[in-house]
Specification:
heterodimer, A: 323 residues, 8-stranded mixed sheet, 13 helices, 8 strands, 38% helix, 13% strand, globular, B: 409 residues, alpha/beta, Rossmann fold, 2 domains, 7-stranded mixed sheet, 6-stranded mixed sheet, 12 helices, 18 strands, 39% helix, 20% strand
Chain lengths: 323, 409
């Protein structure tokens, strides 16, 4: 039988030797952050597993018929349906197992969706599935816009970012609204497990993914995943940029079991030594989607972003009972 | 198979459907309430709560998710059922195409109800007619007995390996769904035996191996991939091929079932009522056929050669049966309980007219749109239609092709 997380100790070498369930040769762009999320989560699998995907980049690049990158059973139905897909699969597995119609073994169900499929169009199905308590892990790979359709703003796009539907115009400098705090909204569902993760901290990510699978009931993993095409950033800097998001507290790392917030190591280090917290400019300047914010007339936007990051960070520290 | 002993139970249409589902050893039911389908969901919840069924009941947050859950549960190998009506069916629309495209044999009862706006909870067929081209088999029941029988047959049709297509059974909202009727019920074991265990076909995976067509960790398969211009068309052609095969399967399943029940609905695809020597004929679907039959009987007593062709399977359209029953008739009125706005007639009219177009001795055709939003279709209105048909038969002239009956103008 597979080992429990508490017993799961591995070196980088051992982790590298785990067979890939998400095969190479898919058609993701160079420097794709979400593809890293998929690969890591799949390597965290503890046993038999079924995955499902919302429509989006990852579905498109991994399954162009008759090819597939999935070495496990995988299904896609539509854009807004990742959580509903998982609900149906999990319900079927449970009853078929009870009736003796399939092998008597636990099968993990993992749903993948991007920010569009989670913050926006798929939110109702997600909220419903969590309320019903299906035993599944929902992985949000967040690249902060509708990248598959060509960089349109979503509820996950941050304040000030240029996208094709929040252009940096003469009057309006990029997206006017801040990012929806999706993971906090999931915590408010009083669900067993919610965590944020970042491809730059891969070990933290895989452990959280494994935890999400082991939890009895719904788990939500919000994985930060840069998109060089959409962010107008350098392909080779994907992981570096992702790390800066956590170092600036733009994307802090934490987990919450039944609503109890706990900072994860990379963010806890900043909480304990606040001088380590980098200014948001260090992160924003790595991406040309924020380029216009560095014009003198948009200084107020930069200030607003910093102030909102600080406000949310303070709130998080309070929730973690650190501040 | 010999005829089995049945018991007669007073049931409304919704309860008859729920009872049939209870007997079919369904694994997953994912559903959302909507008038006039609600009783089905309520009744089935009771069966689950009382331990009368071994079914996972997923009480979802929308019809969109009801259909999605049904699709993925079915793809996991489960026998799956859901039910809806009107706006619920419209909300499912996107996923209905996914169900047929992914070849998941989901069975659904559609308690036919008018579409908004204006909002109206009563019967017409506008909900299901909007789903004509979405790739589902569509069967329409005349009464609650037929709704019960058709649900049982639907599992066997949908899951047939030559078919593998989702199937909806339509029953008229309130007229059937909420009206008590004596329904003959087959014994549980007879139904269970009739529907059997769900089978899945073998398909080729991306590595060229034959694997069961389901989500099975032992035999990985990618279902619902991106399918572009190099393969999509072939897959759609396969769907059409299966629809054609369904014509025979519907008939066979109907015949096999009737050996046990003793009940027949024509040949399973269409029901011809006093048609052999008929000269003037109406064509309709659903509960209105019952009223039409009464009128036909009265007209026959007066020596008028009236008949009825009831379409039971609307998809796949039984073109051959329509031709064989309507060729040579003098005048035919197609009755539509739905509008195809700006389409020069209702959807059923389009289908029937298209079916008989190539027949040299095709009848004169006229279309009557009736009963929208639950407007009652009374016997005298049907008589009016037959009177008009007599005139058309005598003169050979159709003065107005598309007419509306039973409304203020």
């Amino acid at each position: 039988m597979v080992k429990k997380l508490s017993e799961w100790k591995f070196t980088s070498k051992e982790f590298a030797q785990i067979p890939e369930k998400f095969a190479s040769g898919h058609r993701a762009c160079a420097g794709c952050g979400p593809a890293i999320v998929l690969r890591l989560v799949m390597k965290a699998a503890r046993g038999p597993i079924i995955a499902t995907n919302a429509t989006g980049c990852m579905e498109v690049v991994s399954t162009i018929y008759p090819y597939t990158s999935w070495k496990i059973p995988w299904m896609h139905t539509a854009f807004e349906t990742a959580a509903a897909n998982a609900s149906g699969i999990e319900s079927a597995l449970k009853i078929l197992r009870k009736k003796g119609k399939i092998k008597d073994e636990h099968v993990d169900v993992v749903a993948f969706a991007g920010d569009g499929g989670t913050f926006d169009i798929g939110f109702q199905a997600l909220s419903g599935a969590v309320e019903r308590g299906h035993d599944f892990l929902y992985v949000l790979y967040d690249n902060e816009a509708y990248m598959n359709t060509g960089i349109q703003r979503s509820g996950g796009t941050p304040r000030g970012a240029w996208t094709t539907t929040s252009p940096a115009g003469k009057v309006i400098p990029g997206k006017a609204e801040h990012k929806k705090p999706i993971a906090d909204i999931m915590v408010a569902h009083e669900m067993p497990y919610v965590a944020t993760a970042n491809i730059a901290y891969w070990k933290d990510l895989v452990i959280k993914a494994r935890k999400g699978m082991e939890v009895n009931g719904p788990a939500f993993l919000h994985a930060f995943a840069p998109c060089p095409r959409g962010w107008r950033s350098e392909n080779e800097k994907t992981v570096e940029i992702a790390r800066l998001a956590t170092e600036t507290c733009v994307f802090p790392l934490w987990e919450a079991e039944y609503g109890e917030y706990k900072l994860s190591a990379p963010s806890k280090a900043i909480a304990l030594k606040p001088e380590r917290k980098k200014p948001v400019e260090a992160y924003l300047k790595t991406q040309r989607r924020f380029r216009h914010l560095f014009k003198p007339e948009n200084k107020h936007v930069l200030e607003e972003i910093q102030s909102e990051v600080d406000r949310r960070w303070k709130k998080l520290l309070k929730a973690c009972e650190i501040a | 198979m010999a005829k089995v002993e049945q018991k007669i139970v007073p049931l409304n249409g919704d309860n008859a459907v729920a009872y049939a589902v209870k007997q079919c050893d369904v694994d997953v039911v994912a559903a959302y309430p909507i008038t006039p389908q609600t009783i089905i969901v309520e009744k089935f919840s009771e069966y689950v709560a009382d331990g009368e069924v071994d079914t996972a009941f997923v009480c979802v947050e929308s019809e969109h998710t009801a259909m999605t859950c049904s699709i993925t549960a079915s793809a996991t190998g489960a026998r799956t059922f859901t039910a809806t009506a009107s706006a619920g069916l419209a909300l499912m629309h996107e996923m209905l195409g996914v169900a047929s495209g992914c070849r998941t044999p989901v069975v659904m009862s559609v308690v036919n109800r008018a579409l908004s706006a204006p909002i109206n909870i009563h019967c017409d067929h506008s909900d299901a007619m909007c789903e004509r081209d979405i790739g589902w088999i569509q069967i329409y029941a005349e009464n609650s007995q037929e709704a019960y029988d058709s649900i049982i047959q639907a599992f066997k049709i949908a899951e047939n390996l030559d078919v593998m297509l989702p199937t909806m059974v339509g029953l008229d909202g309130f007229v059937l769904s909420h009206t008590l009727e004596n329904v003959s019920i087959l014994p549980d074991d007879a139904v269970k035996k009739f529907v059997g265990e769900r089978q899945v076909p073998q398909v080729m995976n991306h590595e060229g191996e034959l694997v069961p067509f389901k989500l099975d960790p032992a035999k990985p398969l990618t279902i619902g991939p991106l399918d572009l211009h190099d393969y999509y068309f072939e897959h759609k052609r396969q769907q059409e091929e299966s629809m054609i095969k369904a014509l025979d399967v519907i008939k066979k399943v109907h015949d096999e079932y009737s050996k046990q029940s003793g009940r027949t609905y024509g040949n399973g695809l269409v029901e011809a009522y006093r048609l052999d020597d008929a000269e003037i004929v109406t064509v309709c679907m659903g509960s209105t056929a019952g009223t039409v039959k009464t009128v036909v009987d009265e007209l026959r007593e007066k020596g008028i050669k009236a008949g009825l062709l009831r379409i039971r399977a609307f998809r796949p359209l039984p073109v051959k049966d329509i031709i064989s029953n309507l060729a040579g008739k003098k005048a035919v009125a197609v009755m539509d309980r739905a509008c195809s706005f700006g389409g020069n007639g209702g959807p059923l009219f389009h289908e029937i007219r298209h079916a008989v177009y190539d027949v040299p001795n095709r009848p004169k055709l006229v279309n009557y749109v009736y009963g929208l939003g639950g407007r009652d279709m009374q016997p005298h209105m049907i008589e009016t239609i037959y009177n008009e048909l007599q005139k058309i038969a005598q003169t050979g002239q159709v003065e107005e092709t598309v007419q509306f009956i039973g409304l203020r103008e």
